[in-house]
Amino acid sequence: MTLTSLLYPAMLGVQKVSNAPERVVAKPATGPLTEADRDFVVQVRSAGLWEYPVGRKAAKKGTTKAVRSAGQHLVDTDASLDAACRDVAEQLGIALPNQPSPLQQTFVSRLNGESGKQFDADLATTVRATSGQLLTTIASVRTTTRNSLVRALADQADDIVLAHITVMEKTGLVDFGQALAQETTSPDLPAQDLTPPPAVAGQPQVALTPPANSTASPSPTVR
Fold first, then answer.
1. What does pTM read for this prediction?
2. Could you give the CA distance from residue 188 to residue 177 in angstroms, rounded to a whole number?
3. In Å, how far are 23, 63, 167, 211 from 160, measured between CA atoms?
4. Confidence of residue 50 (pLDDT cuts 50, 70, 90)
């Protein structure tokens, strides 16, 4: 079938809330595409859109070498994963946002307003918590999708998100009690605050620029 842009419904950041996640929304050559598959691609995009800018800040202003390294890691790997995500979305006709969800935007605003050790600790705990949520979603999608492009993206996302968790823990600043609470408790917010806003028609797609010394590369996809 000819693919048109597949818009995404409301979702809780990185949590699956589709009414019919198994419903097939398209049948490309790479395998049936479900609501859960489509939502997952959007979730990967949205996560990078908020982690990338705070990673850049951490790489420059973190108070310890571990935090600066963690920030550089976010920039490097989020740019790589975003390139793969945009490639998959283009092939599958999935509309992607240019901004993270309003909730994720509050993470960025809060962290931009912090400095010093407060920024370091808040970054480590917030990224650790949201990465834990996304890792759960990745496992669910990877084991259920019948689309080969979504499987490839899930494989790459799994490696990168687990690495995010590891580098944040290595800072020694993660508040595990707070991270667990954030990871397991759904925010009591309206759907519009939890959903990335659709890109404005005609607006160029935002691309996360990899650093000049990047060692990460997007997974190849078959066209």
1. 0.88
2. 19
3. 28, 24, 11, 16
4. very high
